[in-house]
Specification:
Blueprint (H helix, E strand, L loop, with lengths): L1 H23 L6 E9 L3 E7 L2 E6 L17 E9 L6 E5 L8 H10 L2 E10 L2 E6 L2 E6 L18 E10 L5 E5 L1 H18 L5 E10 L2 E5 L4 E5 L20 E11 L7 E6 L11 H4 L5 E10 L2 E7 L2 E6 L21 E10 L4 E5 L6 H17 L6 H11 L7
Length: about 400
């Protein structure tokens, strides 16, 4: 009785093992990776791991000159094009699409949804003309790419993977193909991996895909996020195209991830390039000593003075009393204009309040800056309506003496 029970237990274990092997066997259309164990005259043999081996027609691995581009020991990524039901033998095709040789293979690729390789030979009304295994196929413009392609002629001459979406037999096959379908599947696969990393504070690398007045869109790998113009850099940015260009690789920090409930765009992702930049105020006192002469750009003018950017994220103020070099100035625009580059003297750096006092006069001293600040403080105390920094300086002009008054 014990022997029978042991035998039944062994049978059950054997069945479980066979089921596990069958479940792990690659499926048709699946992308697989393996290592080449032998390169023959007609076929290449690949170890897929887990005691699974596969073969591939060597024609798939020849370059334009007919030379084999791989060797034993190389890693190979390919698509499973068929699996023998009886023996379990796996046959692979090019990762860019299966090279086909006739209508029967085209029919099989259509039925199984396998990618096929096509050569884009020209443009036609509403799409592209593609040659696949000696047959002419049509790819509608809407199926060429995930994004709209304005000039289809730029793709002529390229070899791409397509999926056959329509096949009608006869003396001449009627083929309609889609490149977009495969690109969307690849994007979905990348997006799944990206979402595993997508969380607030994560630092990711992406590609600039679009530039708008309000910010830049970044492809993080199948998932797109946006860097608002205020998060592009430490300094002021007039337009994203001033510092970024399409196709550029950038490193970004994830600020927020908001679920939208829209299956086409399930999340809104706020990104920042600025957050990864070093805070310029951390060592500003050491880099800009009192009395140092530096170059900067006037960013804007106000009645009380002119703001000058001396580096991205560091902006100082030339008080109106420091603009005339001894003579009275009624408005900063009498002396400076926005966008103009100027040489200024550093009077004082206050990292805690993030303020830098500057002067156009090379002979000005830190004492001048201290006096101006003291006057502004007195004016603020005597004027209850003064609440902003601008009001404070305005009050100083109205109630305190300016440098150079005689």
């Amino acid at each position: 009785m014990t022997d029978d029970n042991d035998f039944e237990a062994l049978l059950r274990e054997l069945e479980k093992t066979e089921q596990a092997v069958h479940a792990a066997r690659p499926k048709v259309g699946q992308q697989v990776k393996g290592r080449i164990i032998e390169v023959g005259s007609e076929q290449v043999f690949v170890d897929l791991g887990g005691k699974a081996e596969a073969s591939m027609d060597i024609e798939n691995l020849k370059d334009a000159d007919g030379h084999v581009s791989v060797a034993a020991g190389d890693e190979l990524e390919a698509v499973v094009t068929s699996v023998d039901a009886e023996t379990g033998a796996v046959v692979l095709g090019s990762r860019h699409g299966k090279h086909l040789h006739g209508s029967d293979e085209l029919e099989a690729a259509f039925q199984q949804g396998l990618p096929v390789e096509g050569h884009i030979t020209g443009t036609t009304k509403g799409g592209l003309e593609v040659q696949i295994a000696g047959h002419r196929a049509f790819c509608p413009a809407s199926q060429v790419d995930i994004r709209f392609v304005e000039d289809l002629s730029t793709l002529v001459g390229e070899r791409c993977a397509f999926r056959i979406t329509k096949l009608e037999g006869g003396r001449r096959l009627n083929l309609v193909v889609s490149r977009r379908a495969l690109l969307e599947e690849e994007q979905a696969a990348r997006a799944a991996k990206t979402r595993e990393l997508l969380k607030e504070g994560a630092v990711l690398t992406g590609t600039v895909t679009n530039l708008k007045d309000f910010g830049a869109f970044i492809d993080l790998g199948g998932v797109e996020g946006m860097v608002h113009i205020s998060e592009l850099a430490l300094g002021r940015v007039q337009h994203p195209q001033d510092i970024l260009h399409l196709g550029q690789q950038v490193e970004v920090a994830v600020l927020r991830v908001e679920q939208t409930g829209d299956p086409k765009r399930p999340e809104k992702i706020a990104l920042s390039i600025r957050a990864l930049a070093k805070n310029p105020w951390s060592d500003a006192v050491d880099r800009y000593r009192n009395g140092a002469r530096v170059s900067g750009k006037v960013t804007r003018t106000q009645p009380f003075g002119a703001f000058v950017e001396i580096e991205p994220g560091l902006e100082g103020l030339i008080h109106i009393s420091e603009l005339g070099a001894g003579r009275r100035v009624n408005h900063p625009e009498e002396v400076l204009r926005s966008g103009e580059r100027v040489e200024v003297t550093v009077l004082q750096v206050d990292p805690e309040r993030r303020r830098i006092s500057l002067s156009l006069d090379p002979n000005s001293t830190p004492a001048d800056a201290a006096a101006a600040q003291a006057q502004a403080q007195v004016a603020a105390e005597n004027s209850p309506s003064s609440g902003t920094f601008g009001d404070l300086l305005k009050a100083q002009l109205e109630s305190g003496p300016q440098k150079g008054r005689g």
